[in-house]
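Usage

Read records sequentially. Each one opens with the input sequence:
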Amino acid sequence: MSSPLIRPRLARTLAAAVGVAALVAACGAGEKGAAQDASVTRAGATATAGVAKAKEQMAALDGAPSWPDFTKLSQSPDVKGRKFTYVAFGDQVPVIHGIGVGVQQALGAAGATVNICDGKFNPTAVASCLKTAGDEKVDGVITSFVDYQMAGPAFEALVGKGVKVIVAGVAPSGGRKADKNLAFYDNTPRVFKLHEALSTSAVALGGEQTNVIWARLMDSTTTQTASKKGIAKFKELCPSCGIATTEFTTVNVDKLGSAVSAALVANPKTNAVIVPVDSYVPPVLQGIQSAGFAGKVKVISSSSDLAGLQRVKAGQQASDLGTPVLYEGWRFAHAMMQLLAGDEVTKGEEFVSRNFTSSNVSGLDLGAQKYLSDDWFGGGAYRDKFLAAWGQS
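and closes with the structure output:
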């Protein structure tokens, strides 16, 4: 398979979208052909084993997740009456907003209040949110999916005012080291596992005949690396399968549909498309429709927003790797509580998800109010675990 070069318009501070080609193979004759036949046999055997492994791993994600335990803090921070700000990189994306609601619920349970500020996927707006938080003399700020290097001076201005800062959802960047006032909640291990699971789902669904287009989100170093991890997992599980990629950013998502359409036309054997987040599936479906591939490709995505699960139920989407957004918000808040306690802010290593497919969505209540609840994930038993770790129970 190969995909054409795709050039959506550049975003000033985000990565440019460039389509990349992937995987072609041809067999010769004679001794060279024999060697390649052996290679093909090995690849086929590896693919068979990979498909079996993928199916086993996805079956394990069919039910409600098990919530991890957390080590008790060295002391119990008193946040009663304190004010915090959650700075969303882009609050219009349901999963990012949902995490913010989880932060509100978590710190609210400990007696604090949390305001959400929308960074609008714009470094200037992010910096403005940080400045406003400082001007309002909040006690702490949690950012979501904002690279430190994107707004370094604004972060340092906050710290200079005595505000505790958690740079969450991303790995450290810009050479900044954690200290007693600013720390990173690096959940990239969890994000990487999620992207690997997207590829695992595609292989489990399509088997050894899977030919996929991977839509790579290039908004940050985290999303760029995550898609690389996902692509590597796909090749590991099924080296004989086909893969092509296309790239996009949130600011040029309006070009995603045409990019996917062009990639499908160039790769007519495609039978699956992986989209990293549910919010970007609608333009992909438009691209599939315009290319004449409706009903011919399976769409795999993640975050389990309401529209995503409704698409799964309607048969428009094959798999949705669920993100329990409220739990994630409590995990972000846990990082702030660790910082306030003077403890090390630990990485987000735990992969907590549920794979939603046609087999398990039929019995769910897909009412709008259920997205910001724990109902799709078996309840909120994790809350008591966090409160116990904070010394709040």
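Summary fields computed downstream for this record:
- Residues 1-36 have pLDDT under 50 and may be disordered.
- The two ends are 56 Å apart (CA to CA).
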